[in-house]
């Protein structure tokens, strides 16, 4: 779409716009009655401020701090910006895994693909394979945006993409009701399918979660094929500790390039930044700034941003043409890292879920 | 394999660079006999919050890779190979006397006590107990083997061999008492490759045992130490042939249906008292409750009496009252110590489980059931809980401190109230009672007369013979002529 906002919303991937320019464009686009979505333009009537005039910098977005968005309950079609309806583009609806309650929904046309194209640039810099052979995604498909992301990424890199579906909600339901055995059978069912694809197709790269990769290593038949064939692995979806990452690279899959990707339905993809001498963390993630702005705040005092190398709770803001997310406190904790190479956004590592209200369950007995 | 002098000490090979500014003891992983570092470490603090050690962590992926590595080693082994009992005897001596992983025996005892909150006197006497158990491993294995499966099978004979049910055993170990770890030594003597995930509060004891065994010359691939989370334990249980899991009722729910898991759950050990209350009776009861700070599965959880439960409970409470609360590393300590908040939570849990029972020990402690040690930790004073009926649910509530439920019992009730008992002492002069107890399968050990519940013989079964779950008799016959 070529309009006054194209230079910020669709800027060249290696030349991102100024963050405040993007904020102003996003406020105008999403809150103008002509271009904004029915949801946002209607909600803005009760804001007590006018995003189009009162917000002109990233910092001004704090005006949204009292505005709660029930992403689970919004009729999704109301999230499509009016300005995009004239375009012959097709929006899709994408749902979160529902780790923190009912699934959240977003709409997306091409913004996420730009995020993925940017990820692919970083994979090039890391020597991640492209061209020959095919890709296998072992993870959420169905309503989850991951399938679309991986489709785009594999096409950009010249691969045919195969899928083995994993329903994260079913796994979570099994585990939350103490049915570990059933979850185990489900994982075996997935790995049986993985084996079938690996045995018959020229798979060179895989995307999956650290947990599935670990389980695959435990299945000698699947692992032998993976170790032999894979030249690239992207892991994401859940966290991985430093030793697991080291083992992936040095022991389990020595012939593969390993790249992490932090992200979720709401924030997009923050790929692993190319490793630099002096990095203390095994894997540093770089959000797609300024389209996705990540902040890390003191879990006790969310108004305070944490310092470099300090742990904080993740706050995300999304400013794309397809959808807008005001600053939102997420469930993850992460460590803030100094941005490398003049990158204007913050970088982060050691992402892990935040255990809110954690209390150790008392167990009877002497063990 | 470790620096011989100077602090900080470390269990890592001395060729590895050690960060000298780190004042903490460093406990490495052991993968198939090799001490290695992990990129993931956890700080282990004492019960008073003092940082004690950096424990290298094994994530689930490392557990799986190590099991695979161990299996490769096992593939080339003789199916009936097992470490020479002489090596185990030597390892026991090293455990008791040598500097291992940079720790003298005394320094090991102190770390174990401070981290696990177990009085240091327990680790000290365990040094020699462990050495004795190691020395006895060969005799125990021989005693447990069915005589029909011991001989050499000659041509023309069809007979039995005593064979391992698998090659790789995962051990999900506890932190309650150093002696508990001697159980998995039986598996090593059977020739299993062991992968031990230590308890979070005591990685020191299994690390020391493994160091001693390696130094004594046990084949390295038989020994791995993989500290880690529940997920690491789950990965080990999934990947190993068999598992020995120490845990509570939650572990029983989780693994109870898995035929590859040998479960060591709560002991719920008891005494059955019939007859007069004498000094000797009280000594045996109090010794059963309070020995080793009451943290073993063979410490008594309940006393059933056909006498006056109130008088008995009061007498027991009075005798237990002098057990000294003190920091676990001090010589006089006789009670378990926990971080203050955990100690409070444990007592609150007990309060919720009282169901009408009365703690008659409370009268001895005007300042309450916890002895605040002033350093962020508290010692758990004995609790003696008087119940009015034999089916009071308290008899099933085993807590890791001297905590005993006293319940009324009548002969007509038989053994029903005494079910699910690891060790039962029958404090009576009536042998018929002991025989009746032996008929109840869920009572795993019966001791007749004035002997404490934790008593064991050199070849007595703890909860059945462990080797009978690890080994099986398989038929083998050899023709009298070659084809």
Provide structural commentary.
- Chain A: This is Phenazine biosynthesis protein.
- Chain A: InterPro entries: ANL_N_sf.
- Chain B: Keywords: NAD, Oxidoreductase.
- Chain B: Residues 90-409 form the Aldehyde dehydrogenase domain.
- Chain B: InterPro entries: Ald_DH/histidinol_DH (IPR016161), Ald_DH_C (IPR016163), Ald_DH_N (IPR016162), Aldehyde_DH_dom (IPR015590).
- The complex is a heterodimer of chains A (367) and B (483).
- In chain A, 32% of the residues lie in helices and 22% in strands.
- Chain A contains twelve helices and 13 strands.
- Chain A has a six-stranded mixed β-sheet with strand order 4-3-5-6-7-8, with helices on both faces.
- In chain A, helix 6 (111-125) crosses helix 7 and helix 8 (168-176) runs antiparallel to helix 9.
- Chain B is α/β, with parallel strands linked by helices and 483 residues long.
- In chain B, strands 15-18-19-13-12-20-21 form a seven-stranded mixed β-sheet, with helices on both faces. Chain B has a five-stranded parallel β-sheet with strand order 9-8-7-10-11, sandwiched between helices.
- The relative contact order of chain B is 0.13.
- In chain B, helix 2 packs antiparallel against helix 4, helix 3 (105-116) crosses helix 4 and helix 9 packs across helix 10 (309-320).
- Chains A and B meet through helix 9, helix 10 and helix 12 of A and helix 1, helix 7, helix 8 and helix 11 of B.
